[in-house]
Amino acid sequence: MIDLKTPTVQQAAMADFFFAYQAFTAKPDEILARRGLSRVHHRILFFIAQYPGLGISELLGYLGVSKQALNIPLRQLLEMQLVHSSVAATDKRKRQVGLSAEGAKLEQALRREQVRLLQRALDSAGGEAMRGWLAFNQALGQSLEH
Question: 3-state secondary structure string, the chain?
Fold first, then answer.
């Protein structure tokens, strides 16, 4: 068990986490930058791909941002025809978003790069490490709910 009470262990753990995140986002950031997009656009594409027909309010909840913060990047994705918007069949006051064919292609390319990196790291670390990593990420993600 790692003891995070020691400052040097804290610093090492956090540095590893930051470098891992940097590696995880580097290639997608590069692909997005070629299109004039950024990590926020990636997050939007990811959740729309994960939940087709997602309503705007649900998207806001997944992203944890305000309507104002979502407005510009979502509008850019709509203008670039990577995302489409339609009226919800159940409630005409609500809008749903989905990926266009080009948006799905971009999201898959971004995901493919990240899956390759994860697969290499997990293959190197082994099955037990993978189970621990998944449990760690789930526990970390659940901390947002509290």
Answer: CCCCCCHHHHHHHHHHHHHHHHHHHHHHHHHHHCCCCCHHHHHHHHHHHHCCCEEHHHHHHHHCCCHHHHHHHHHHHHHCCCEEEEECCCCCCCEEEEECHHHHHHHHHHHHHHHHHHHHHHHHHCHHHHHHHHHHHHHHHHHHHC
Q: Is residue 8 part of a domain?
A: no
> What span, in angstroms and rounded, lies between the C-alpha atoms of 48 and 42?
10
Domain that holds residue 54: 21-141
Domains of the chain: total: 1
In a domain, 123, yes or no: yes
Q: Is residue 9 part of a domain?
A: no
78-124 confidence digits (pLDDT tens): 999 999 999 878 888 888 999 999 999 999 999 999 999 999 998 99
